[in-house]
Amino acid sequence: MSSLDYEIDLLSRMVAIDTIAATKKGYDQCASLIMSEAEKCSLDAEILDGEKAARDGLSRPNVIVTLDAGSDTTLLLEAHFDVVPPGDGWNHHPFKLTIEDGKAYGRGAADNKSGIAAALGGMRQLQKNKDLDINIKLIASVDEEIGGRYGVDYVVSDCGVRGDAALVLDSGPERLFLGASGIIWAKILVEGKQGHAGYPFKAKNAIDEAFRLISEFNSYKQMVEKKMSTLQSPPDSPKDRVWGRFSVTMINAGDTENIIPGACEIRFDRRLLPEEPVETAEQELITFFDSATKRSGCEARMEITNKFSGYLTSPDLVFVKTVSRVIEKTLGTNLSMAGELGGNDGNFFAKHDIPVVCFGPIRTGTRYHGKDEFVYLEDLRNVRDFIVNLGETRREGITS
Questions:
Q1: pLDDT digits (tens, 9 = 90+) for 106-143
Q2: What's the CA gap between 126 and 392, in Å, rounded?
Q3: What is the per-residue pLDDT for 342?
Q4: Stated pTM of the model
Q5: CA 99, CA 121: separation in Å to the nearest integer?
Q6: Could you say which residues of the chain have pLDDT below 70?
Q7: Cα 347-341-250 angle, rounded to 5 deg
């Protein structure tokens, strides 16, 4: 197929825009760029701004790009343009795309602006095909890195955007991913008694109390890790199948060295199996927490800060078989099916009964979320060509 000149140029201009999810300062600029590119490709485009639901004055411009074939069948593509902070220690400028040895370096080069570049590149080619049997709609979303409530969730749940099937481009090309993990995020506030560090016997150190409680959670962690999914794990995983995970991720306490802290906050991440209901996992967590506080004697309370189920798409669906066949046509090899260890925006489609699979350019080892993130140009090409081949399938391969 054609060269990658278009996709690399578009990716370069997107990477140059700072779209860190926490600040959102580059969201509007990047959305305008995507809108402009869609119009140049004779594609319809609109913005659905999640700020209308958030009502906090911070723009969240989700861009919807449509290739209308006049069909009654629509395939949704999804990728996000928000990124995590670059951090320090880069050998390449994080906001300037650098091409070296078949790799394109930059923050978001893999996760997930490459997905948008591949999608628009593919739709650009498909737009010239007058015999298309399906409509294609790209959702270029925001806020994925911080949960997606005012990104894809807003687009699908609040605005009612629908399709007959969905392809999430926020994954790797080593497997066809049929599911992703759910999450429970929570914080625990452990109480002690503040006092002078010179007289610790007159105080109760909340950090000591917190460590006792964390120790109690070792048995919970072991219990969770015994849970096994029916889906295979991604490449380079320590277990063959997706498993449950629990990680303490933040501890905060104290104001200065000479004060015994009277409170300590613990935050943690619990990863669910793709098929594990979040309600069941939440009740299991609450029951354990109640018993752990009694055993440890700690005074503590827990607050669930975020939660959602994962999803698992049946491998028996015609859509899944079609995607698998098109991948084989594009790559020349058949991919096994697996589940994601992380979460992704696919759960927002799944909760509205839209079949969803994941296949994208974020290969293992591309340092996404780390310094010197990159995407392999070969993967960018393959995903674009896969989208072209999938777009040229008949509607029966999507809906039957």
A1: 999 999 999 999 999 999 999 999 899 999 999 999 99
A2: 8
A3: 87
A4: 0.91
A5: 18
A6: 1, 400
A7: 100
The confidence score (pLDDT) of residue 1 equals 47
328: which residues sit within 8 A by CB, 6+ positions away? 334, 335
Cis peptide leading into residue 112 (ω within 30°): yes
Q: Are 339 and 181 in contact (CB under 8 A)?
A: yes
Q: What angle do CA 111, 115, 50 make, to 5 degrees?
A: 80
Q: How many CB atoms lie within 10 A of CB 36?
A: 12
Tokens linked to 113 = 């602006």
Write down all domains in the chain, each with its CATH number in brackets: 5-180+310-399 (3.40.630.10), 183-308 (3.30.70.360)
Structure tokens at 320: 């899944």
DSSP characters over 137-173: EEEEES-GGGT-TTTHHIIIIIT----SEEEE-SS-S
Are 31 and 61 in contact, with CB atoms under 8 Å apart? yes
- Predicted local distance difference test score (pLDDT) of residue 400: 63
